[in-house]
C-alpha cells in the first residue's frame, strides 16, 4: 500500500516514464539547437541590419523554441500515464469492481474493438480501455453492465486504475463456454 512515495520511488517512476519519451525529447532538443541556434547565430553575428535577415533569424529562433515547447507540452499527459503505470506495477492490487457503462468502437483498419469500460469501485467511477481483436467479437455479447470484473488499482491513488485484460478475456471465454 502507498503511504507516501519515497524520493527513490518517485525518481524510479519518473525515469520509467522518461524512457518512454526519450526519443521525442531528444528530437525536440535537436530542433531547439538546430533551428534556435541558427536563428540566434544569425541575430548575434550578422553584420547587416537588413530587416529580412533579422526577420528570418527570428523565424528560425521562434520555430526552434516553439517546436521544443510544443513537444514538451504535448508529452506531459503521456508522461503522467507512464508514471501512473509504474505506480500500478509496483503498488496495485487486484480488486473486483462493477461495470457501470460500456461504449464500443470498432476500428476495422487496426483489427481491434476498443471498449471504454467504466467501473464503480468503492464509490469511484473509473474508466479504462479494453481492446479485443475482431476475431473475438462474439465475446462482447457477454460483457454487460453490472458485471463484476477484475481491476488493478492502487488504493491510495484510485485514479491509477487499469482493467486486467487477460483476466477479463478469460472471464468472457468462460462465459462463452458455459
Specify Rg, calculated over alpha carbons. Answer: 24 Å
Looking at the overall shape, the CATH architecture of the largest domain is Beta Barrel
Strand order of the largest sheet: 3-2-1-4-5
Which CATH C-level class of the largest domain is it?
Answer: Mainly Beta
Order of helices and strands: HHHHEEEEEH
Strand content: 25-35%
Number of helices: 5
How many β-strand runs?
5
Low confidence ranges: none
Counted up, domains total 2
- Return the CATH topology of the largest domain: OB fold (Dihydrolipoamide Acetyltransferase, E2P)
Average per-residue pLDDT, rounded, comes to: 87
**Major sheet:** 5 strands, antiparallel
Termini distance? Answer: 37 Å
Instruction: Indicate the percent of residues in helices.
Output: 40-55%
Brief characterization of the structure:
With 178 residues, the protein is α+β, with helices and mostly antiparallel strands.
Describe the structure.
The longest helix is centred in the first third of the chain and has 24 residues, at 22-45. It is built from 5 helices and 5 strands; from the N terminus they run H-H-H-H-E-E-E-E-E-H. The protein has helices spanning 7-20, 22-45, 51-74, 76-91, 165-177, and strands spanning 93-107, 112-121, 124-133, 148-154, 157-163. It is of the alpha+beta class. Helices cover 51% and strands 28% of the residues. The chain has 2 domains: 7-83; 92-177, OB fold (Dihydrolipoamide Acetyltransferase, E2P) (Beta Barrel). Helix 1 (7-20) crosses helix 4.
Please give a handful of descriptors for the protein shown.
178 residues; OB fold (Dihydrolipoamide Acetyltransferase, E2P); 2 domains; 51% helix
Amino acid at each position: 500500500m502507498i503511504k507516501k512515495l519515497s524520493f527513490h520511488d518517485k525518481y524510479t517512476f519518473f525515469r520509467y516514464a522518461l524512457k518512454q519519451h526519450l526519443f521525442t525529447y531528444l528530437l525536440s532538443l535537436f530542433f531547439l539547437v538546430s533551428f534556435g541556434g541558427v536563428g540566434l547565430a544569425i541575430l548575434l553575428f550578422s553584420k547587416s541590419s537588413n530587416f529580412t535577415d533579422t526577420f528570418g533569424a527570428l523565424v528560425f529562433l521562434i520555430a526552434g523554441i516553439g517546436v521544443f515547447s510544443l513537444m514538451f507540452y504535448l508529452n506531459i499527459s503521456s508522461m503522467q500515464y507512464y508514471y501512473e503505470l509504474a505506480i500500478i506495477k509496483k503498488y496495485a492490487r487486484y480488486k473486483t469492481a462493477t461495470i457501470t457503462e460500456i461504449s464500443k468502437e470498432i476500428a476495422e483498419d487496426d483489427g481491434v474493438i476498443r471498449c471504454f469500460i467504466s467501473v464503480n469501485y468503492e464509490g469511484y467511477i473509473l474508466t479504462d480501455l479494453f481492446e479485443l481483436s475482431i476475431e473475438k467479437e462474439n465475446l462482447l455479447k457477454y460483457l454487460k453492465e453490472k458485471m463484476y470484473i477484475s481491476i488493478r488499482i492502487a488504493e491510495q491513488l484510485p485514479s491509477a486504475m487499469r482493467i486486467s485484460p487477460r483476466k477479463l478475456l478469460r472471464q468472457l471465454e468462460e462465459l462463452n463456454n458455459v
